[in-house]
Amino acid sequence: MPEMPEVQGLVDFLAARAVGRTVTRVSVAAIAALKTFDPPVTALQDARITAVARHGKFIDLALGDELHLIFHLAKAGWLRWYDELPTTLIKPGRSPIAVRVALDDGSGFDLTEAGTKKSLAVYVARHPGDVPGIARLGPDPLDPAFTREAFAALLAGRRTQIKGLLRDQGLIAGIGNAYSDEILHAAKMSPYAPAANLDDADVDRLYDAMQGTLREAIDEAAGKPPADLKDAKRRGMQVHARRGEACPVCGDTVRSVFFADRSLEYCPTCQTGGKVLADRRLSRLLK
């Protein structure tokens, strides 16, 4: 799933290429991906793109004074850019392409989604806050207002395990499964640690790890075209999706905990005092 650094990379890419261009056509091939009907998608035609922004993991193209084309790439969605947009007809149900946006200079992009579970979401809105997922977002972790003190206040009294808290978009916007693994590894912290049990030194370490991990990943994504962002993300991972490999910090074997639809990765030596975490479905540590 694209997370904050990759989404910011896409935002920067679109800002450099699409701002100032006029939308000539929007073709919807997967009607289930379009979550709104008012304004209609046809309202985007002949509108000029004036800005591109990020809200958590949502990408927001502002068009004129009153319209926004907003999309969330979900687990298996992506953006495919073309300097020269293909002229081939999109056949609904016969292609991974869900939406195609054509621009006045012949360029444009497709929103695609792989797999059978379709979660890509596209909205045409008058204001970003009209999108329910954006309205519910917590603060952006790299917002200057999200200080160490604000982070500590968010953690205080919460019995939630820290892995789940970092992934909760209503508490902190933009962090998903991959970067929460990376942040916790950098902080040398168990994913199962209750947020309320963290002392001041833990909070300092976790806040610094969150800031450093995300800023480094955003820097790595900067300037890369969409086709290169996924590989850049994979190369930067220390533990996520590296089960069975050696931890780059201590050399221990990276382990996984499996859930119904995802897994987490961690280093026992760096994060859990050498203890191997049981499968989460057992809800306990192996003794």
UniProtKB/TrEMBL annotation:
<dbReference type="InterPro" id="IPR000214">
    <property type="entry name" value="Znf_DNA_glyclase/AP_lyase"/>
</dbReference>
<keyword id="KW-0511">Multifunctional enzyme</keyword>
<dbReference type="InterPro" id="IPR015887">
    <property type="entry name" value="DNA_glyclase_Znf_dom_DNA_BS"/>
</dbReference>
<dbReference type="InterPro" id="IPR010663">
    <property type="entry name" value="Znf_FPG/IleRS"/>
</dbReference>
<dbReference type="InterPro" id="IPR010979">
    <property type="entry name" value="Ribosomal_uS13-like_H2TH"/>
</dbReference>
<keyword id="KW-0862">Zinc</keyword>
<dbReference type="Pfam" id="PF01149">
    <property type="entry name" value="Fapy_DNA_glyco"/>
</dbReference>
<keyword id="KW-0234">DNA repair</keyword>
<keyword id="KW-0326">Glycosidase</keyword>
<keyword id="KW-0238">DNA-binding</keyword>
<dbReference type="InterPro" id="IPR015886">
    <property type="entry name" value="H2TH_FPG"/>
</dbReference>
<keyword id="KW-0227">DNA damage</keyword>
<keyword id="KW-0479">Metal-binding</keyword>
<feature type="domain" description="FPG-type">
    <location>
        <begin position="238"/>
        <end position="272"/>
    </location>
</feature>
<dbReference type="Pfam" id="PF06831">
    <property type="entry name" value="H2TH"/>
</dbReference>
<keyword id="KW-0863">Zinc-finger</keyword>
<keyword id="KW-0378">Hydrolase</keyword>
<dbReference type="InterPro" id="IPR012319">
    <property type="entry name" value="FPG_cat"/>
</dbReference>
<dbReference type="InterPro" id="IPR035937">
    <property type="entry name" value="FPG_N"/>
</dbReference>
<keyword id="KW-0456">Lyase</keyword>
<feature type="domain" description="Formamidopyrimidine-DNA glycosylase catalytic">
    <location>
        <begin position="2"/>
        <end position="96"/>
    </location>
</feature>
<comment type="similarity">
    <text>Belongs to the FPG family.</text>
</comment>
<dbReference type="Pfam" id="PF06827">
    <property type="entry name" value="zf-FPG_IleRS"/>
</dbReference>
<protein>
    <submittedName>
        <fullName>Fpg/Nei family DNA glycosylase</fullName>
    </submittedName>
</protein>
